[in-house]
What does this fold into?
Amino acid sequence: MTHPSPFSPMRHEQAGEHVYYLPRNVLQQFDSDRNIYLVGARGTGKTTLLKAMDWRERLSNQSLQAQLNGKPFATKEIGTYIKLPHVQFALLDRWLRHMDDVAYADYLSYYLDLVWLELACRAIEDLRRASLIEFDEVAASQCSETFESWFSDHPAAAAVLPPSRSPDGIGWLCRAFRLLRLGVEVSAKRGLEPDLAMSDHPTGAVGEFGRTAAPLLTELCDASGPRTRNRWRFRVCFDEAEILNGRQQQALNSLLRVAEWPVFFVVAYV
It folds into this structure.
């Protein structure tokens, strides 16, 4: 009987079904409640490690599931993988180039929070369909009401709230995050004055939007389970961060510096 080789002549993201080999000591470091900077030459396995955190891979990849002893969500970690070259950094940088460093970091971090929160909501919905996360209509309604109350004070956010939605899921919230993100991109493409355009959004200081939203989502994920120390949390993985310029890197560093439970970041560089 032959087994697929874990080595491939092509990069991880260009291959199809991936075979995983993950050293235990590396996994233990990734399972810790801290932010991580991951640095290595091309082909050293950075993307493989980050992909191994992603909820989609953990749900569907049998090789990865075997590496995790058939319990890919035992640590109650919801991982999201984001390839930074696919994020609209060049567009935002041109738009915000005249802003001071504080406003630049505030707006860029808000945009990044929208990117990962949209994926996090997709993950929660997928894990719920797989019966790995459970919450009832009451918990979903409470979560909805909290977000509605928060968004209602900000015209751009209030505008993306649907007139009606399913009371037992958060697909509507995923869509809301996506529309807010697209709204920022449209403002940038039109060259609107940044402070004026962003005044309608719930931006706040660096990372404030994500720090406010994440505990609400964690509360929902934990709604039907026993109150233990092992609660659901988020691992946001940013790949190919070497594409960032100086101001973008400074903003990202600030986002990691102020991050707090239940959100932890991994940033990979060549």
Remarks:
- Confidence is low (pLDDT under 50) at residues 1-8.
- The CA atoms of residues 111 and 182 lie 10 Å apart.
- The longest strand covers residues 77-83.
- The longest helix spans residues 101-129.
